[in-house]
Amino acid sequence: MAGKWLIDVTDERFDIPPNADVLDFIRRVNPFAHSDVGSLLIDLGKRVEGAHAYSPSYAQCAYVVLHTEALKIVAIAFGQSGLAFRLPPVSRAAALEDGGGAATEIGSDWVLFNPWDPGVTRERMDTRLRRWCREAFAAPPRTAQGDREID
Questions:
Q1: CA-CA distance, 92 to 40, in Å (whole number)?
Q2: With a threshold of 0.85, does the pTM exceed it?
Q3: What are phi and psi of 79, to 5 degrees?
Q4: Strands across the sheet with 52-54, in order?
Q5: Packing angle of the helix pair 89-97, 122-136 (nearest 10 deg)
Q6: Residue 2: what pLDDT?
Q7: Residue 40, helix vs strand vs coil
Q8: Model confidence over 94-134: pLDDT tens digits?
């Protein structure tokens, strides 16, 4: 995969209108994800019914996303500690008050969290991330095939 842009190896099934912002981010940034933040996102997804994890290359530490069964991407792990959730307007303000930051580099619906913020206890951060991951999956899913199951 050396020398490839991750958007070029991203499954084309994700090229749907609701994902335009996050796919544009992937196209511009070519984000890889440290295995710690990628694994954390996968673990968060295991607690949400209907969550599916995807990466164009887990072995090469490419970005990791969680998506609904309808293929809508609702969370992304990237970089050393980037963990962002797509949140509905009703949840976004509360997430920003709960330590999140506007992830405008991804899109207006996205809130970024630093899962290793030294000013927040591990227990508090775990609770926070589980909450916003659940909120990101508020919409009812549809079945997708060929993704890594989270169990």
A1: 21
A2: yes
A3: 65, -155
A4: 52-54, 64-67, 73-78, 82-86, 110-113, 101-102
A5: 170
A6: 52
A7: helix
A8: 999 999 999 999 999 999 999 999 999 999 999 999 999 99
